Amino acid sequence: MHLIIILGLIAKLALVSGDCEGGNGVSNFDYNKFTGTWSVVYHEADDGEDKLDCAYLSAYRLRNGSRIVSLYYYHDSIKGSVERIAIVPHIDNTGFDLDVLDPSIWNGRVQFAAVDYKRFYVAKFNATELRSVRVYVGYRDRHPDEATLNDAKKALSDNGIDFDTLKSWNSSRCDHFNYKPNRSLEL
Ligand SMILES: *[C@@H]1O[C@H](CO)[C@@H](O)[C@H](O)[C@H]1NC(C)=O
Ligand SMILES: *[C@@H]1O[C@H](CO)[C@@H](O)[C@H](O)[C@H]1NC(C)=O
Ligand SMILES: *[C@@H]1O[C@H](CO)[C@@H](O)[C@H](O)[C@H]1NC(C)=O
Ligand SMILES: *[C@@H]1O[C@H](CO)[C@@H](O)[C@H](O)[C@H]1NC(C)=O
């Protein structure tokens, strides 16, 4: 009888610690699987970022092997799109650094809380210049299906982030915003 209770407790503890693993972030990040285009749909509310919309992130490699991340978004102050190109000088098991060619608020470190290479990621961006850490959620598809949205929300809550505090860069203008990453630069 006691044994059954103890076994039950062990099983429960195993389950709890298993559930917590998502909260420790990604520990085997793979840049090659991450390459391609992502729609960055959710971000934390911020006066500067609220002026942006329809954000994309495109990760690729140049023919000479250098890794590049392009950030592309609509900016309300110019009523048009902006592209920022960053070199990725360092990668490890948890994410990568961004070194934007123009000195920029986008310099810093991207650390993944969760990544499903075919569907979504949850990233924390430690911005060097702004000295702040902000959360972003990207999807392969700007209009993710219900299951993908729910799985991303679960990944957020596993990492102690409240989905309801995030804002969307997905206004109706994004449906007409045509982003075509420069494929000739890719391998
Ligand atoms: C690859 O080419 C880019 C663009 O010309 C350059 O900035 C970068 O330093 C090069 N990387 C290497 C490893 O030579
Ligand atoms: C953000 O990066 C700086 C170094 O650039 C580091 O000192 C700081 O601890 C980092 N913050 C977090 C929360 O990771
Ligand atoms: C983005 O907006 C479209 C409508 O413009 C909507 O159908 C879609 O669900 C939205 N996606 C997200 C992730 O909010
Ligand atoms: C794509 O990149 C190549 C090489 O840098 C450049 O010559 C070409 O003009 C670019 N095309 C577009 C549409 O930006």
UniProtKB/TrEMBL annotation:
The keyword Signal belongs to this UniProt entry's keyword annotation: yes
Signal peptide: 1-18
UniProt keyword list: Signal
The protein's name in its UniProt record: Lipocalin/cytosolic fatty-acid binding domain-containing protein
Species of provenance: Coptotermes formosanus
